[in-house]
Amino acid sequence: MLIKPPSDIRPSEITPESVYLNRRQFIASGLGVVAGGVASSLLPSASIAAAGDGLRATAPSDMARAAPAAWWGSKFEAIKPVDTAGGFYTSESLTPYRDVISYNNFYEFGTDKGDPIANSGDLKADPWSIAIEGEVEKPGVYTLEDILKPHDLEERIYRLRCVERWSMVIPWVGFPLADLIKRFQPTSKAKYVEFLTLHDPQSMPGQRSRFTTIEWPYREGLRMDEAMNPLTLLAVGVYGNYLPPQNGAPIRLVVPWKYGFKSIKSIVKIRFTENEPATSWNMLAPEEYGFYANVNPSVHHPRWRQDMETRLPQTLLSSSRSPTLLFNGYADQVASMYMGMDLAKLY
Ligand SMILES: Nc1nc2c(c(=O)[nH]1)N[C@H]1C(S)=C(S)[C@@H](COP(=O)(O)O)O[C@H]1N2
Ligand SMILES: [Mo]
User: Fold this and answer.
1) Nearest C-alpha to atom 14 of ligand 1 is from which residue?
2) CB 264 less than 6 A from any atom of ligand 1
3) Cα 51 to Cα 328: distance, rounded to the nearest angstrom
4) Using 50, 70 and 90 to split pLDDT, how confident is the model at 52?
5) CA nearest 166: which of 282, 298, 259, 279?
6) What's 82-336's CATH class?
7) Bridge partners, 133 (sequence order)
8) Of all protein residues, whose CA lies closest to atom 1 belonging to ligand 1?
9) Does 204 contact ligand 1 (Cβ within 6 A)?
10) Which ligand 1 atom minimizes the distance to the CA of 162?
11) What are φ and ψ of residue 240, in 5° steps?
12) Pairing of strands 56-57, 192-197
């Protein structure tokens, strides 16, 4: 974990939302040094006093969402704090909650960034079920409660890099996709995992639009080793709170080393396949979007360079442009999966 000397910490870098730290975490992380000095006044007082097991991000109380159904409550009370080792955590400033839930790509609700929050009010995240299909020992249609029951929820703080060259830092709540996959026991033929989003033109106005270019439902896929990588998360919450519709309620994928479009929202089907599944953006513009879509500063999109990105929200105080990192900064965790592959060809 990156520890900065106090003099290097600018006000704009202080986590803007409530991030709760207990004392042990606080001291262990080195932030304790800052707390005694100038930066302590910039943190909400509650952030230091709060008890807990470690780092915990919470949505502003006036914006928090109610549980989609009663059984969710206990799951969310027991969220495990973020593991600050490995790639599960970054100390970079969190993108504020209001930006995370109001600047979205979710074409089912329209193509403008403000469309998803404005148009997703009719999405019903409860009841919800997910079909498990294909090369798997335990296929079936499972309720979301059945899907979630055996899994403990944990917090992960990940960078999200969109192919449109903006990025955010988001505290997700979820569980490793690998744990779900092991439960349903893919057969030896399963080489890929395909994901499909809900297709419901009634609640998803973008799916009834005459101008839509996507062939619904939205679909994505991962190679089995990518799906099993510990970083790959099935998220059911953000900022310690239930996912809002615009972020992919009730359950979505988060693959932090790939461009954002791989992180498919509002999943209703998970299919294990022998062959590489078709994916929405690749179907639409294969020369622009590949199956792998690994964040890579040296593989440029035909219409724009990818070596720089803008961290949202943009502020007047700080330059928010920064160099894009290979695998979005997760090379230690994922590079070995791509050894011997020509990443320029298999983009
Ligand atoms: N079903 C579906 N999933 C989707 C998209 C979409 O349009 N439809 N957009 C993708 C893109 S391009 C990005 S950058 C991320 C954005 O996630 P966020 O809005 O939660 O930040 O969702 C991805 N998942
Ligand atoms: Mo994106």
Assistant:
1) 260
2) yes
3) 32
4) low
5) 259
6) alpha beta
7) 271
8) 265
9) no
10) 14
11) 70, 10
12) unpaired
